[in-house]
Records
---
Amino acid sequence: MRGSRIIHVAALFCLGWAATAHAHKPSDSYLSIDEKATELDGYWDIALRDLDRTLTLDANGDGAITWGELHAREAELASRTFAELSLSRGGTRCPVDVQPLGIVGHSDGRYARLPFRARCPVVGADFKLDYSFFFALDPQHRSVVRVRAAGPGASEQTFVLTAQKRSLALDLAVPAPLGSVALIERGVEHILSGLDHVLFLLALLLPSVLRSKSEGRTTGAQIRSVLRDVFKVVTAFTVAHSLTLGLAALGVVSMSASVIEPAIAASVAIAALDNLWPMFGSDRWSIAFVLGLLHGFGFSSALSDLGLHGTDLLRGLFSFNLGVELGQLALVAVFVPLAFLLRKQWAYRFVLFRGGSLAIAGLSLIWFVERVRGG
Amino acid sequence: MRGVAGRHDLTASQEMRTHVRSFSLTRCVVMAGVIARMQATETARRPARLPAKYALFGAVAAVLALGAVQQAQGGVERPSDEDEVLAHVPARDDGEVRALEQLRLRAELAPRDLHKALALARSYIEASRRAGDPRYLGAAEAALASFCAGPDPVPEVRLLRATILQSRHEFDAALRDLDRVVEVTPDDAQAWLTRATVLTVQGKYEQARASCSALAPLVTATHAIACVAPIDGLTGRGDHAREQLERAVQASRSSTDLAWLHSLAGEQAFWLGDPAASERHLRAALQLDGDDRYTRALYADLLLDGQRYAEARALLSGHSEDDALALRSALADLAQGQRDSMEGRKVAQNFEASRLRGDAVHRREEARMWLARGDAPRALGCALESWAVQREPWDARLVLEAAVAAGQPERAAPVLAWLHTTHFEAPRLRALARSLETRP
């Protein structure tokens, strides 16, 4: 059978070599899972090309998948895909609630991002993930799974699921419920370690021991007016951030971290710059209030990390907030007397006040740029 | 909130479908606040201060609104335009796509029909070659899946499986299949040819030659030469190989054969240090078969070696979806001082994605990239990893170049030994070897 059996010899020959560096990419999906105490939050990125093979998204066959074609099939898509994914803890499956999907880009094209939240009835330490999506259509499909356990500073682990290895079993330590004291400590820790919050407070307090006679702040103020000033500013900040912390923690209002973080940095800059070029008048409590609203949202993520619910949440919120206030109080109690004693010194007026405000402004503007970029 | 990108703090309530383009708007809004108060600086008169304060309140309100809206979307981007195209897939009116779809349906309707499955798998493999897309190989594998079960799949299935395996660099597994195919059907020319090429890649030249000898009586003289010429080229009989190929080119009438022969001849000339002849052949090959990515990549390498960067880019333009070709584009950019070109970033992203999923097929390309970026130790590591799996001239060259650049001659020992035993006559490699051997 000379020759007739050679089917595109040249083609196949070249295939072997050309394939040493593939164009495009083999099929992958990306799963990200964040553990909160009783919940698993995450998203699943699936390539549109792969979804098209599962569902034929290109309804009119013109070779282009449009947004309209995609979100018309959204519900079906969600149920078909999540039927192949199973999350469980303590041996019990966690029901999954799929959120509206979005579009993201990866190195080989656009993917559908399906955010989800799973509420696990049993909070066992043994976490199991079973995955069977797409292997029937492509045995080379893989899923890159990132799991982040609960608790501050928890590390991230990455796994790869394949047609040969379709499940993942992990031990997620069950965080012990935190007592009130521990929660208060958390609050103290959070504000004192949050440099942006600390600097904001300092920027607000720096001018309080000075008094503006005409323009600018040049002379030292009286103790009574200092205390009144500090009291108004600190109370305004406290009320504002407690308000938004409470609203966010209780789920009444929800803020995107990617909007709030840069805004917090900007608020620090604004407070610092106002020290150098006063714009908002000498009564700064309203500024402290309005900008403090932003900071409250900033605090709420530390609380939401704990995944508390119901009365636990209320108790936690109260204790955490108390901790934040205690931390703040400590800061004020250290700084204000010191500033008051130094208020007439040249070093205070120029180095600490002007120089310090400038430094704070510069630093916070750097943060602003970084945070807007997504760093 | 110290957030990780993509984290959500979800609320049960809203499900607004307003689309907001994120950061530029945030920046604008906050900047508006900043600018508003900057404008109210100099005069500290009471009335002038009020607008600044209210501008700030407005800015904060806008930020909070934006944050709430963004959060309601679950932090993902939802396009607003129904007609926005998100991805391209093969169009249904494309002839090839229709043919593929027909084959797929026929195979689906008759799951136990071997021939339909084989036809489908072959078509997928061909599609993969043309598009340079490994996803089709996965589809081919799926088409064959039910026939691969059991201890001894039929030769036709094994042959296709071997083709898929060797494209993933699983050479030993491919050989197991190929050995069985030639055992059962010793007159399967394709199997002998594929076997010869896999053995050549693994550096098992005598066995490869034996495969070509078994192939010879089954095919035309041209195909027999095409099988053995690369092996001759690698084992010190380069001139003989070139002669044979030239003669075969003269004698051939078939354009597919000619494309193949020209490509082989071009590759020989490339390594034997004759860029003019190499260029002649590679251009001829590409003219006959513009889809041949391997030849295109080789021609690009020739141009890069000759520092003809503009021509290289012209050759590669329009082929940026192919990783191998995108890499060469990136190398052209790097050579001209563009350290952060779009191609370069795309290539780096692809390597990263490949690493994430646990694939190791890109080691050679990674080595080239790191070498071009000046990270010789890393390049050497990748090159040696590639050498562990395949013994091709490019892998040898990269090990040598990286070893020279990194000042670690001892690590190039395996390649030096290989050069010594094979008598491969590539002038560039010999020069590199000499410079490594003369180091203290």
---
Amino acid sequence: MAMGEQIPLRDELDSSSGLSTGLASGLGKGGLKAILFEIATMLQRLASTGEVSQIDLLNLPLTSKEYASLKTLLGDGEARIELKLGGLTLCRETAVPAVWWVEHFNDTGTNAETIAETNAAKAVAEFIEVAEVPHILKYEADELQLGLARLNRKLEMAGNNQPDNNQPGNNQEESDHE
Amino acid sequence: MNKRKSQMTVGDFLDAHGISRRSFLKFCTINASLMALPPWAGQAMAEQLRQAPRPSVIYLSFQECTGCLESLSRSFSPSVENLIFDVISLDYDDTLMAAAGHQAEQARENAMKENWGKYVVIVDGSVPTADGGVYCTAAGKTAQQILTETVEGAAAVVAVGTCASFGGLPYASPNPTGAVPVSSLISDKPVINIPGCPPIAEVITGTLLHFLTLGIPDLDEHGRPTAFYGNNIHDRCYRRPFYDQGKFAKTFDDEGARNGWCLYELGCKGPLTYNACATIKWNDGTSFPIESGHGCLGCSEPNFWDKGGFYLPIPESTFTDTQKIAAAAVAGVALGAGSAVLSRLRRRKKLDEQPAKEETS
């Protein structure tokens, strides 16, 4: 018996709905179901311990049909974040809270709209991340301190450049109410 | 090239050059994924590297065509991979550096002295040994002398390209210069081979990154990282279902070629070759030789220049039992052949002996 018969891994698309036949008939069998169970386990872990998890999609033996089914099943949420990091990185919230779809692209000049509409660019890394926020969006403590220092400097400079409010005609508040 | 500042960490350098923490995290994440490391490894790599001083790298080029360096330093479009040059402190590379003559050699000697025991030596090109090694000399020294002296204080040696890894073209018969691979001259330092003619840029970058953060990666019997060289081209080839169905292109312009059938009969060496071409591909994942219509040359294997003609099929006798049993290799085969076992017999389909029979996939 061939390996594929011993370990059912394939999931076909239902011709009428375009969804995986597994989905159409209630998830069925195979790799798609395994991934969804893993996501569910990760979500449970996040809820109970706060532990974040990731699945590296490009290192899973998914067919293009299974990949499409997974995307359809997880759906779209409200948030979509684009990062310009030497190429686009897209963090897309799925319809399942705390389940994010993160795609990293090289800098090929392709923008997010083109990627969404035409699949013009191929992600060089792709993850499902189970977390409140994808880790690439988070700040580190020293970044916050640096940012605060920068903002304080700007405030200081703005304070030094303020016009003298005791001089006639320089009182902005009076002129605003005339 | 930037002069390495001894107190500056990788993170300091990246910040000073406007490369954000997120960009670097993305770079490490992508490379970790390429090496099939756990998802958390990218974050760990990024954190570790940012705290570390920029590692000194000395790049030596001997009997080579510069294709390997071109693969690493030129990209089809600007890519995150270019960040490797911000991570390392490339203290010597006679192809890229602005300095020349004595100043260039002084840069190499200074880097060795300042980083003794910690610097990485990257070598591309084979090393000639015939007639005292006179067939490759620079600064009055033979390649063999330069290699021996430079490697003395190195932490590790990375042989980039098939010439450095296995001797490559200079090593091919009759080998008039007595060319040898780097590993045959170095026995007291770890040597990592990254063969390919040239190697894929991401393979070079990923291996360097792994070494700098997690140490020497798992290597196969030829000293190649198994993360990139653990898979057989044939097992990952998208044309594999055609091989299984006995559909072969007979010439480069026949119906089979136009339909993208298996190139086995046109000399493809995929079944004997281990590399990442079929998965990572070239030029930002654009294509690889088979996808462009030409059989694999087997360029990441030892002695590939002397293994018979590039356009002669592999003799059936070379298909050993070991090669016939594939590791679960359906990943990437989009047509869903479903079989991970290499066909024991090559099925020759001759139009004049057997009516064409279309099998549904």
